[in-house]
Amino acid sequence: MEINGQTAYITGGASGLGEATARILAAAGAKVGVLDMNAELAAKVAGELDGASAVCDVSDAASHEAAMASLREAIGPARIFIACAGIATGAKLVSRDGSATPLERLTGAIQVNLIGTLNSMRLAAADMAAMDPLDDGERGAIVTTASIAAFEGQIGQGDYSASKGAVAASTITFARELAREGIRVNCISPGLMDTPMMDGLPDEVRQSLVETTVFPKRLGHADEYGALAMHIAENRYLNGTVIRLDGALRMAPR
């Protein structure tokens, strides 16, 4: 679809991949809604882009519903929805002392990355389905975010891999389901991206990760994710697919 003049919502839009995507879409003429847990940062980004912001816990139905209602009133319903909100957690099934890891430590990423994405998609799809169709009968485009850990999860990433693997696996299912409404669903699976999630890693660890990337030998840039998300929204024949954005990286077991 033509980006200029459309409304786009981005979860996790106050930083990292989400912020970069919000800025790219706004520069292309979209009216942007920023959803994020960080109210101050969300308001700052939205203010700079002449958009709107809402505090949102994607894993909580009431919070997400209220955030969507707020943005809907401020800038209208979204034709484009980018689900970037997520967390990176890690735990093994068995702790160092030999005991079973508490279940809650193995489900945190699932609650945010998987349940949160499903929560976003159901609300976005309902809004899009109620809108008049554009060219080719299209009503909207949804882009979700998985990870290369969906395919090559490392030791200790079981919950994270499970959450992102489910997001990737459900892409074709939801694309098929929403086709009758004229809504496309695609997924981006980023590799090692230079975002705040990576800031806590020591320099030597970051460098070792870079060395495992085939080409280019560097971390991915957030605006590369944003550019791909915008292209997916623009390209009406892209549907039901998972696109790796990883410099040909294949993760080692540890």
What string gives the helices and strands in order? EHEHEHEHEHHEHHE
Q: Helical percent range?
A: 25-40%
**Which strand order does the major sheet show?**
3-2-1-4-5-6-7
Q: Indicate the radius of gyration in whole angstroms.
A: 18 Å
Overall body shape: globular
Helix-strand category: alpha/beta
Q: Strand fraction band?
A: 5-15%
What's the number of extended β-strand segments? Answer: 7
Total helix count? Answer: 8
Describe what you observe in this structure:
The protein is 40% helix and 15% strand. The protein has 254 residues and is an alpha/beta fold. A seven-stranded parallel β-sheet has the order 3-2-1-4-5-6-7, sandwiched between helices. The mean pLDDT is 95.
Short description:
The protein has 254 residues and is α/β, with parallel strands linked by helices. The protein has helices at 16-27, 39-48, 61-75, 108-129, 158-169, 171-178, 203-211, 222-234, and strands spanning 7-11, 31-36, 52-55, 80-83, 140-145, 183-190, 242-245. 40% of the residues lie in helices and 15% in strands.
